Amino acid sequence: MDLNDKNEEKKDLDKNKESWGDKLDETKENLSEKYEEVTDKIQGSIEETKDSINKTVKSGVKKTKSFFKKLFIGLFVLALLAFGAYMLYSNWVFSEGTRTGQLIKISKKGYVFKTYEGQLNLGGIEGGPEGMMGTIWNFSMKKEDMYHKLEELEGKKVMLRYKEINKSMPWQGDTNYFVYEVEERE
Domain containing 22: what range? Predict the structure, then answer.
């Protein structure tokens, strides 16, 4: 082997080194570009997933709010209907009639709601835990003018026309019997 051959080999080696260096640089650039592409794709996918999750959550929140709003309105309407039905039932006239006796008490009473109340002695004797006593009938009135009329007739014999309802409310009176007309009797 002579010197020329060695120089040529050296030149070949240098060319190979350069060629390998160029290939290595090219491979680095390719890898760098592919890395950026994959990173961009992953970030894009992450953003799409985030957007999809946000849309789903917002949709769920909106549906939940809508459901509870409808539920609240429905329960409120149901409560109003139930209250109205109860008031209708409570004020339903169960019976009407008259009672005659001696008017022994008439009063206006109540802490919050002032109501007009009275007692009528129907006559007869009734036995109870307190002994023998007259048969007393308690009643209520809704109108103040009726109260004043009965005040004048206290101690006298009267006939009262009344209506009995199923259940009186605290602002109506203490009893379920409501007097609406009075006649003095001899």
Answer: 1-90
Taking the C-alpha atoms of residue 55 and residue 71, their distance in angstroms, rounded to an integer, is 24
Return the half-sphere exposure (C-beta side, CA atoms, 13 A cut-off) of residue 29: 6
The verdict on 86 and 1 lying in the same domain is: yes
DSSP H or E segment with residue 132: strand 131-141
- Give the tens place of pLDDT for each residue, 14-68: 666 667 777 777 788 888 888 888 888 888 888 888 888 888 888 888 889 899 9
Helices (H), the chain: 3-90, 144-152
Domain boundary at 57, 90, 123, which?
A: 90
Q: How far apart are CA 108 and CA 12, in angstroms?
A: 127
d(Cα 79, Cα 71) in Å, to the nearest integer?
Answer: 12
Q: Which residue in the block uniquely carries the two structure tokens 């309407």?
A: 77
Backbone phi and psi for residue 115, each to the nearest 5 degrees, phi listed first = -125, 160
Q: Tell me which amino acid residue 160 is.
A: L
Is the Cβ–Cβ distance between 160 and 139 less than 8 Å?
yes
